[in-house]
Amino acid sequence: MLLKKKNAVIYGAGGSLGGAITRAFANAGAGVYITGHRMEAVQELANEINAAGGKAFAAEVDAMNEEQVNQYLSGLVAEGHSIDISFNAIGWKDVQNFPLTEMKLADYLQPINISTQTNFITSTAAGRIMSRQGAGVILSLTATPGGIGYPNTGGFGVACCAVESFSRNLASELGVYGVRVVNIRSGGSPDSKVFKEAIEAGGELAPAFLKKLRDDTMLKKLPLMKDIANTAVFLASNMAAAITGCTIDVTAGTTAAINYDVAQTAFLKEGNNNV
After folding, report:
1. pLDDT tens digits for 224-267?
2. Using one digit for the tens of pLDDT, what is the confidence trace for 99-131?
3. Which residues share a beta bridge with 139?
4. How far is it, in rounded angstroms, from Cα 85 to Cα 6?
5. Which of 29, 61, 173, 256 could cysteine-pair with 1, CB 3.0–4.6 Å?
6. Residue 93 and residue 194: Cα distance in Å, rounded?
7. Quick one: which H or E segment has residue 13?
8. End-to-end CA distance of the chain
9. Residue 146 gets which letter from DSSP?
10. How many C-beta atoms lie closer than 10 Å to residue 2's C-beta?
């Protein structure tokens, strides 16, 4: 088991993607300390994992509150636990599908403020403890707009870039202590709750929207939550011991190949370039 004898703290575990990553960590042998701002959701997940033979502990922690996060981690250390993995998966409350020129300032700033604040709080809190331990892995999560210009993503795209930059800079400071910091860039998982809700709200336009997202990828398919969770397990394990200070792209190639039309390229290659 890749994460046997490791302890993972997950913020935002009550969400669908946070839950998928928590289950993957537990299945890989980690003890999971799952937090959220609603105890009911995280306790339900902890009960599920424990019933399946895992080791999970739930706590109500606001990942936007520096004092709460520091107290929670200090409490775990005082009880004799190591902090081996920290993963932040809380929602950013982003507003999208508007051109920047038509957005309200508050809507634009909201995901930027949330993402930068929560990642600073949870990552630096873990970093201080991991530095004393001489080991640890800090993971964060962004999406496709962190790597390319993407229209109508509002402040979300800017927030992704900020989190990826913060992850790199923190890695450069903590590496000397044996601590790795890595960001995961997702392409948006169609089986996640947030994505499903967006598709349902899209009505008749949803199928075309999904097709466009798939067509923008190299693999012509979108990454599922299990793809993100499996990547997180690998990065948190000793198999990724030499990986730090970077973003691992799990967008099925969207970042590198958006709007690349294979059929059209093949047509032109055959010499039919008089169109």
Report:
1. 999 999 999 999 999 999 999 999 999 999 887 665 555 544 44
2. 999 999 999 999 999 999 999 999 999 999 999
3. 87, 182
4. 8
5. 29
6. 11
7. none
8. 56
9. G
10. 17
Helix (H/G/I), strand (E/B), else coil: 25: helix
Give me 123's structure tokens: 């990552």
Torsion of CA 251, 253, 259, 265, to 10 degrees: -160
Query: What is 7-190+222-256's CATH topology?
Result: Rossmann fold (3.40.50)
The C-alpha atoms of residue 180 and residue 130 are separated, in whole angstroms, by 9
Residues 6+ apart with CB under 8 A from 183: 139, 140, 141, 142, 146, 163, 164, 167, 168, 246, 247, 248
Specify the 3-state DSSP secondary structure of 224.
coil
For residue 267, the number of C-alpha atoms closer than 13 Å in the C-beta half-sphere is 7
Helix (H) / strand (E) element for 7: namely strand 7-11
Joined together, the tokens standing for residue 98 give 């508007």
User: What is the helix (H) or strand (E) element at residue 185, kind and residue range?
Assistant: strand 179-186
CA distance 137 to 183: 11
By C-alpha distance, which of 129, 122, 12 is closest to 69?
A: 122
For 217, counting Cβ atoms within 10 Å of its Cβ (0-12 exposed, 13-18 middle, 19+ buried), the class is: buried
C-alpha–C-alpha distance, residues 70 and 15, integer Å? 22
Going from N- to C-terminal start, the domains of the chain cover 7-190+222-256
Compute CA distances 2 → 40, 88, 134, whole Å: 29, 20, 19
Residue 249, H or E segment: strand 246-250
Q: How far is CA 150 from CA 36, 191, 207, in A?
A: 30, 22, 20
